[in-house]
């Protein structure tokens, strides 16, 4: 199969591209300079001769989206629709990466793929709009929601914790947001599996099994790195106000990926 990855230089796009290359697939990764998905013409010019397109391109600066919602919408909604439209025109299978932020975070049990959207942030609104826009033009598209991504090829929570561990004796991390830290390699493998098994179009949840808080995640990073987890102290979201509201409960149902802590040893090993 011939694969195109838009947003192919981002944290997830890079890992997906590397995985496909390792598997001997024919893959082309494009960044915004080669294919700006806001432009339908650019997408049409790029998307010729592919069997699969994975749209990993997005405005991912969650807090900045609060003051730049139109710019975020142009990428996360209009851009996603452009890819979906050209995929439908060219008979290319589309996979789109979406987010737990399309939900409001008030649930008490894992969100199933058919749960109604109710985003609480500008970023979440633009991603939710992208999902709707894709479904309107391409019912065959696979929309894969993921959460709390961390990977080797991007700035992420694991790297931040390891850096702070060198700079400070103790650090405080929020303990009242629950979610599923998800390794980009695991998500990449899931995307390939969905395509290879010719899964029907619709919504899928691609997040790790299990759940934890940012505090629990930080403690586990310390433990795996051979540091004392007691150096990580819990605090509340109210102690770290941010422009965008974060969902308090972000656990996605359909947990087919490995446990959230399983890949940490591999990643921490590459960072220390
Ligand atoms: N990170 C998370 O915790 C998380 C959680 C849930 C869902 N997601 C979703 O997962 C996907 C991948 O996230 P990520 O963390 O890998 O993101 P990322 O590292 O920020 O990468 C996003 C990529 O999008 C590209 N991009 C931005 N504007 C573009 C445009 N106009 N046209 C084409 N490409 C453009 C950028 O390419 P250039 O660098 O070439 O400009 C960038 O490399 C996104 O859809 C995101 O919403 C992420």
From TrEMBL:
<comment type="pathway">
    <text>Carbohydrate biosynthesis; dTDP-L-rhamnose biosynthesis.</text>
</comment>
<keyword id="KW-0521">NADP</keyword>
<comment type="function">
    <text>Catalyzes the reduction of dTDP-6-deoxy-L-lyxo-4-hexulose to yield dTDP-L-rhamnose.</text>
</comment>
<dbReference type="InterPro" id="IPR029903">
    <property type="entry name" value="RmlD-like-bd"/>
</dbReference>
<feature type="domain" description="RmlD-like substrate binding">
    <location>
        <begin position="1"/>
        <end position="256"/>
    </location>
</feature>
<dbReference type="InterPro" id="IPR005913">
    <property type="entry name" value="dTDP_dehydrorham_reduct"/>
</dbReference>
<dbReference type="Pfam" id="PF04321">
    <property type="entry name" value="RmlD_sub_bind"/>
</dbReference>
<comment type="similarity">
    <text>Belongs to the dTDP-4-dehydrorhamnose reductase family.</text>
</comment>
<protein>
    <recommendedName>
        <fullName>dTDP-4-dehydrorhamnose reductase</fullName>
        <ecNumber>1.1.1.133</ecNumber>
    </recommendedName>
</protein>
<dbReference type="GO" id="GO:0008831">
    <property type="term" value="F:dTDP-4-dehydrorhamnose reductase activity"/>
</dbReference>
<keyword id="KW-0560">Oxidoreductase</keyword>
<dbReference type="InterPro" id="IPR036291">
    <property type="entry name" value="NAD(P)-bd_dom_sf"/>
</dbReference>
<dbReference type="GO" id="GO:0005829">
    <property type="term" value="C:cytosol"/>
</dbReference>
<dbReference type="GO" id="GO:0019305">
    <property type="term" value="P:dTDP-rhamnose biosynthetic process"/>
</dbReference>
């Amino acid at each position: 199969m011939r694969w195109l990855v838009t947003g192919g230089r981002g944290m997830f796009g890079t890992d997906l591209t590397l995985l496909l290359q390792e598997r001997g697939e024919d893959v082309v990764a494009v960044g915004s300079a080669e294919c700006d998905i806001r432009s339908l013409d650019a997408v049409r010019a790029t998307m010729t001769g592919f069997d699969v397109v994975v749209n990993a391109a997005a405005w991912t600066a969650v807090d900045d989206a609060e003051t730049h919602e139109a710019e975020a919408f142009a990428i996360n909604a209009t851009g996603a629709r452009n890819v979906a439209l050209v995929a439908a025109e060219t008979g290319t299978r589309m996979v789109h990466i979406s987010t737990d932020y399309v939900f409001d975070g008030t649930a008490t049990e894992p969100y199933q793929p058919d749960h109604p959207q109710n985003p609480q942030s500008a970023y979440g609104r633009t991603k939710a709009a992208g999902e709707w826009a894709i479904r309107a033009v391409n019912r065959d598209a696979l929309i894969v929601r993921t959460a709390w991504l961390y990977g080797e090829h991007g700035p992420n929570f694991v790297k931040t914790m390891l850096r702070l561990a060198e700079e400070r004796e103790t650090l405080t991390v929020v303990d009242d947001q629950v979610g599923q830290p998800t390794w980009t390699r695991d998500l990449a493998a899931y995307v390939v599996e969905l395509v290879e098994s010719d899964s029907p179009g619709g919504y899928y949840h691609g997040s790790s099994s299990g759940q934890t808080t940012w505090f629990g995640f930080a403690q586990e990073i310390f433990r795996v790195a051979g540091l004392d987890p007691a150096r990580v102290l819990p605090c509340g979201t109210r102690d770290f106000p941010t422009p965008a509201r974060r969902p308090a409960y972000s656990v996605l149902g359909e947990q087919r990926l490995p446990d959230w802590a399983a890949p940490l040893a591999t990643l921490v090993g590459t960072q220390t």
